[in-house]
Amino acid sequence: MNWDAIFEFFKTLDANGGWFFDFLSFLVAGTLMIIVLIYFYRLSRGDIDWFGRKIIDQESIEETEKIKTDLQEQLTLVKGENSQYIQMIQEQSKKLTEIQNLFTELDSKYDDETYFTSQVMYAAQEVACAISAEKEFEGNRDDTFDYLLDYLINSLKGFREKNPRIVIHVHHPNSTEKLSHYVHSSGHSPRVKEYEPIIDGSAAGRCWRTNKIYYIPDTEQDSIEYERIELITKQYRSLLCIPIHAGPDKSKRIGVMSLTGKEVHAYEQIEIERAVLFSYLLYPLIYTDLKNRGFLHG
Amino acid sequence: MDDFEHLSQHVRHELSRLYRDGEITKKQLMEQMKNGWFDHERMKIKEKFLKWIKKDTPS
């Protein structure tokens, strides 16, 4: 920087009457005056102290702190409520899933019931046809019962696991101590015709004697009335015997329907009830047939 | 009410045979055997429920 030139410049200004320095002094004085006025103005408002330091508003700080605390409390509250709502939504969602599952289960049972009703309808129709066409029925007795018993068997749950088989016994034409084979469902060995349950000492016999349902959930149990025949290759563990009757009067019983199941505890209450319903459906046909053949006793 | 057809004896026996031989499932047997019989009320309720569940479940 060329200081000599700067001094020379000021000398020139001074030599030209000094107007510049006058202007400069007024400018500086004016500026100072404005600064002093602003200072007093701010001092009078309490914004600054005598030394020009900014005064901190204690009340505002306290108020701000209070707002902050309030907001934090509200935040905690909202978080709590939020978690409650989330929990509530989760519970509702769980309930909705449960309702869906319950409906699916209920619908599946309803589906099964309507199917069973259709089977009852067709079985009743077959019974009516068989009674009305006596000669034809005589020639196709086994087939007719095959179809009829199929309606019941196909209504049972878990057909393949349970492997249900049915045999119907009626009063023996020549003995008061035994029952005699009447018909059986498909799947049975032809040897089932040879089996004649004794009235005292077999499951079908007990059912006949008491005229009541006899269900053995496990034929391996000891305390049951059941005829163990060593020669028979047993393919079942459960046995359900249902009297074929027209009420509690023993003189109106005409047979016993025995239903076997491969598994232990194969049949649920509803299945037992369905089998009972079928026994009533079969009654008119068996009764008519036995009567026509002169095999009715009692 | 809709009119449903009765299945003929032959068809019923055939369906039973197919089920016993494992050629059709229990579900198929049930549907075909019923052929609409006794099922209309159930289907109406099912439809109602499915509509309700669809409405109340966010996609």
Instruction: Report on the biggest sheet of chain A.
Output: 5 strands, antiparallel
Uncertain spans of chain B? none
Rg for CA atoms of chain B? 16 Å
Stretches of chain A where pLDDT is under 50 for at least 5 consecutive residues are: none
Describe the structure.
The complex is a heterodimer of chains A (298) and B (59). Helix content of chain A is 57%, strand content 10%. Chain A has helices spanning 3-15, 19-45, 58-132, 134-139, 141-153, 159-162, 203-210, 269-293; strands at residues 165-171, 179-184, 214-216, 238-244, 255-261. In chain A, strands 2-1-5-4-3 form a 5-stranded antiparallel sheet, sandwiched between helices. In chain A, α3 packs antiparallel against α5 (141-153). The longest helix of chain A has 75 residues, at 58-132. The model of chain A has no long low-confidence stretch (mean pLDDT 90). Chain B is 64% helix and 0% strand. Chain B has 3 helices and no strands. In chain B, α1 runs antiparallel to α2 (26-34). The longest helix of chain B has 17 residues, at 40-56. Chain B is elongated and about 45 Å long. The relative contact order of chain B is 0.13. The mean pLDDT of chain B is 87. Classes of the chains: A alpha+beta (298), B mainly alpha (59). Chains A and B meet through α3 and α5 of A and α1, α2 and α3 of B.
